[in-house]
Amino acid sequence: MKRRKRNTSNLIERVIHPANLTIACKDVVRNKGAGGIDGMSVSELKHHLDLHRNQLVEEILTCAYLPQPIRGKEIPKGGGKTRQLGIPTAIDRMLQQAVSRVVMMHYEIDFSTYSYGFRPERNTQQAAGKALSYINSGYQHIVEIDLKEFFDRVDHAILLQLLYRKIKCPKTMCLIRRWLRAPLEKDGKLTKRRMGVPQGSPISPLLSNIILHELDSEMERLGLRFVRYADDFSIYCKTKSQARKVGNDIYIFLRDKLKLPINRDKSGIRRPVNFQILGFGFVPIYKKGIKGKYQLVVAPKRWKSFKAKLKEVTRKTTPMSFDERISKLIEIQRGWINNFKYANIKTKLEELDGWLRNRLRYCIWHHWKKPERKRKNLIRLGIEAGMAYAWSRSRMGGWAIAQSPILGTTITVQRLQKRGYIPLASMYNEITATLPTKTNSLFPVM
Length: 446
Hints:
single chain, alpha+beta, globular, 51% helix, four-stranded mixed sheet
């Protein structure tokens, strides 16, 4: 059955429809984020839209609307490197969200099944699960290709040409072209942009998927098994020679057709134990009757960053009440465990639990401050008066006392839980209790 083509010649009418603009405004406000160069915060956006909606719509319909420059901001990337973010104004973010909502409908139906990034009802767990299924099916020579500074290297001419194949609306195309060309403001200086899609803008995930859909189509044409999440993608082969040929073919396609360079230092042919995808790693299953199979684990870097977040919240000098610490901890724990719930993490979470409880005990001990207050609180917790006096005057460091029996037997797990603390392992059990049935105990059905 031939798929019916949608008319996109007057797409702008759906973009500026009051309902679409209202939803886009709500999305931007809900996502929060910093303001652009005009100083308007996202909390002021709704009021501004109510006052200037008609003027804004008129400017868009007459192609008189000019986006303001993007505010440049560098964020840490890891390894001492930084990533350049481009932060549009709140108004531009709302309009980009409105365009993205409408344009996405025309592309989503054509996007590859094996593309998982920035798409409805798709996530990192599904991408990692697909990679695991390839590996456990014998495709254990993995071509990993890292696109060098992808978001900064997107060729505008190629992207606009791909957009025009499906989006025939001149006014929508005019908006997108102006967003792509909007200058970057950094340290008070404006820099022209002739290539790249700024990370940090609502429309950049869609635009990146549109240009990399060409790569997906090429890999599907070649009959390859692959997984792509935004600009991270990997190809799975049976033999090393096949992997080498596939890697060369895709490198040539990226270079000649999409004009996207690869990072040779981070690209190559990997075996499962040396390969990571979206924070997941792979380790062999050492079990009788199971050979050549792997299971998901969390990459060391992700454990390190998780521990650093927990450490920041439980730092004794961080100005928070105990209840605020607990609330923030639960938020971080739930988000991280939900992301990695399909990996083998329970044992490590149990180990981390003991360290985290001691951090909380240290915060409580520090909060008691004066020796007399420490003595009285220890007595209230059931410590004999003489011992309470001795510990309250101890010259031991706070971290040593937090790990000592005096706090371990008084500020118990049960008492911490009464104050709202949820052990990591308990939260993991709660979250994984609702998971779908697992296939061969390796990964859930998706």
